[in-house]
Write a structure and sequence with these properties.
With about 90 residues, the chain is an alpha+beta fold. It has helices at about 5-10, 45-55; strands at about 15-25, 30-40, 65, 75. The protein has one domain.
Amino acid sequence: MKWESVKKTYNNQWVIIEAVTAHSDGEQRIIDDLSIVEVFGDDSLKAMHKYKEIHRDNKQRELYVVHTSRRELDIKEKTWIGVRGK
């Protein structure tokens, strides 16, 4: 599914999306194809709680919480430098 289709189908709602195919372009993450994991209407807190739950169970999935009012998916990549403690 493309972002334009998601915006039309789930107009003005919070959604959790999963990148099916994606690539990096410098500091930008480009999602070529995505799937809808869950729709939350106007409840951003529920969306974030569900995201944390799913991410905790499977950290390998590329998930994002986004609002469909966004014109484009503007996802910045961050490079982590350093060591995490125990």
